[in-house]
Structures
1.
Amino acid sequence: MERFDRHSIMTLQKTLSIAKSIRQILDKQRVIPQPRRLNETAATLADPKRRHTIPSGFFQRHQSSAAVAAAADASREHDCEPLPASHVPPTPSIAPFSNSPPTTKYKPIPPITLRALPNLYSELSKAKLGGLVALSTMCGYAIAPGAADLTVLLTTTLGTVLCICSANAINQWIEVPYDAQMLRTRNRVLVRRALTPFHVWSFGAVTGLAGVSLLATTVNPLTAFLGAANIVLYTGVYTPMKRTSIVNTWVGALVGAIPPMMGWAACTGALDPGAWLLGGVLFAWQFPHFNSLSWNLRSDYSKAGYRMTSVIDPALNARVSLRYALAMLPLCWAMPAAGVTSWWFAVNSTFVNAAMAMQAWRFWRESNERTARQLFFGSVINLPLVLALMMVHKVGWRDREETSRMAEEGIGLEGVVYVDEDELESEE
């Protein structure tokens, strides 16, 4: 019995020794996935020559965890790369259900409230861009040779704004998976889930119907048709074409040319040659404006799979910018010939358009971030100046003021007889 006990004890000791060896081998093969770290604080650990970055939550723990931080920092550039567990001594700070603060911050999505909705709708509608488009509509109304009516102007502007809200909301509803891949758009309303897709789509549908209905009932059917056509063109043609063909830029330029024509149609009820020239000016202006902008955003467009000229053919992108910057010159010269402005507009606009054409030429000669930025800001200055010069040199606006003054004073033109000087000389 004594021998059996001694033999059993020796066997048990050998078994425990083997088990311990196996456990050590398994411990070396064990891995610990590293968590993502959002807020980080730089700190110097054991090696003074090396600067580590460790989560700020480690400094708030009750037990020192410098070794844990060192192991975590070894995979800073590869957050998901596993590390051997032998490098990380077991400590209570990494135990499950620990009371210590986490290494990442969780920010819940705030609930939708009535107070937050205006800001969310403003982001969804791209309020700044929409304001510029509405301003171009007002300029088209002011340039048109018709009697001005403040009520019609306000309802036209409001209807245009509603159409813009609809187009931008539906555009974001369609592009949300691609917006999430771009640095410029990854914080949009749908990407961060501030609103549901159904909510966004409903907002776009309601604003679109309201805008077109308002234009049809208070302005005229032609303006309402242009507003509806622009929504369809932007959401149904331009948006899907961005991922299939570089022609999307030309379609987008057409979308931008319609709002001033809506203002013209609201004032006159028709699309005269001057309206088409005004739309042509807006159409041509958008190429140097957008192509220079897309040059510095081409990496983002490439990530999302958008087929922009700056991504597919950078040389063509610069050529198109120069081509349409030069086209601004004859388009503005044609405005006096159409009877929209005086010939002084042709003179003054030449200097403004020549400055943008020079910037486009530099961008074509050497396409880089600096020349692209110069052309972009030059185009931002160009359009307001051109539209302002059109309104200043508009034919007949001073004559209408004189006519209204004469009407107020009771001076009529019924008794005025016009005599041809040539006929008068022949009679003599």
2.
Amino acid sequence: MARFGRALLVLALLLLATTAAACDDDEGPDCDRMTERQRPESGVTALLADVSASVRGGTGRPDYTAALTAQIEAAVQRGDHVYIGTFDGSSSSVRWTAEKKLTFSFANREKNRELDRAEFTDCLKGWLGEATRSEPEMGGTDVLAGIFTGADAVKDADAGPRTVVVGTDGLSTTGCLDLTGGNAGKQAFVDKLIATCPVRDGWGDRLAGVSLIMAGVGHAGSGQSALATGHVSFLGDLWRRVCETAGAALCDVSTLPVASSGEAGADGLAADPDVPFVPDAGAPDLDEVTSVRTDLLFDTDSAVVRPEGRAALQGLAVRMRTSQVQAVKVIGHADRRATDRHNLQLSKDRAAAVAKVLTDSGISGVTHDGRGERDATCPAEKQSCLQRDRRVDIIATTVEG
């Protein structure tokens, strides 16, 4: 009888332990373990959210956590180390909410790796959500400071891809790219900024080897007036030009709207001056162009996509699948070196290779073509300029609305 009683006691203790474990599971993901181990061969991703007044005023700020979820999932799938931060009007006020969080799963079974990846994703989304609710420390908006600080963080990558993801309205109001002077909306103003700022501020190749992904460009908080379509297009063009000029391996600048978080913004904390635009020149088409440097995608004179290029294209495909993309065209370009015939064939082969990766990643209806050196702008003898002609443009046509 005593033996039976002891058995019941053991059973009761086991049930208590099981219940306690279940309660622990309900407490949320174990995010602390993401800092316990490091993996040098992993890539590095920096996620940055604009918290300046222009995105926080009114009754609803952009939901950058939702807008960047696809990029969070792509980083976790790659097993990257991840930084999460915010920026406002100065490089000195960029703040990191999370630093070098490892998203690689060391589990042996795929089922357990899937559980780890889901937990890591929840952790990153939680940190990013917390970051976007923080208050701006400085007035104004210095988008480029956020981008360059992110690029400095991902330079830690020893072998894997380096990715900077930024949620912002793109309305820069400080620094060399200050848009408040009354010329915003003019194409000639973009040309002037691109000719002046890299020299004045010493950009160099600050984004060399980095894939830059921007979301929400042209869409401020609900407290701001909605921009005309042509003005949104102007901002998209500006940031693509900035990205390419700073030497990024991939420039993916999205001007698609970002849903509102539904949470009230914060008025009157740190002023952000208005950006006056010239009258809208009319609605352009809804094509988004992503330019990818061929040194990220291919070895010299090759049309075989390199692993790091494949990873960048798969990340782009993730965003396309979550957007209203109805058609995608891939155009290959070459510089003026080698013969016309060779350059044309190489550009066609490279466009076909990129199109196949996008198709294999779930994007339907992808077409491709090559233009050789037809659109080249750099003389063959000017080595420092040639890279901009060696690229693949991925043109995504989106559904309006």
3.
Amino acid sequence: MLEWPRRNSYDGRFAEGTKQLQVVGLTGGIASGKSTAASLLGELGAHIIDADVLGHRAYDPARRRSKR
């Protein structure tokens, strides 16, 4: 039986208690759990930047009119 190689995602450089900034990007298809994962990370104290929200704000006609 063929199996994918197992990888350990733990990296000792980012051990608990360090002050190192970690950036995590969530990608995936529709209904793949990105929002759920972001919510869970937010509950753990992560700062969430939602690119969809930023994109919608950038193209919102009402916001564009008020900038002129």
4.
Amino acid sequence: FYTRDSPTAVTFTPALGYLGTAAPVTIRLTGPGGQTRAVTYTPTVTRPPAPDAPDLASTGPASAAQSVTFEIPAGGSIGYVDAGGRALADPTVPQGSFALAAASSVSTVAGRPFDPTLIGAVGTVIFTPRRGVTGAVPAIRYRVTDAYRQTSIGRYTPAVTGYPSPRRIRGTNPDQ
């Protein structure tokens, strides 16, 4: 959509996922002496950079879930993939299970129509260790896809620290 920001400025905001040349708009300017001039503005929208799916790691105690968080582009999505890039359901490894979560927030600009490019989102990968597990956990792959169907694949590698060693409690018994 086009908006007139001032008497001399027009802004084109493309719909999320739009690529190509938009319909031109003609702007008529009038100078101080009453002279007029018509200017045509034809915006071209190109693909933005692909999303980033960083390699992430976390370390946490065996008694609690752990997670990592990353950005999801507006109109984007997240999912697990195998080594060949094929979609997977929630992966489970002998050491525990993984889950995905996403949260979003919406910003608005006064005087402008709703703009889905102002939606911010974050993805979270959660690992829940099985009881008694410690040490390194095999990495899983996750994919971030944007509104232009561009993708990036990252890895998440959790590690589980051990259970605390039991303490000996000394009693009042002299035989201890």
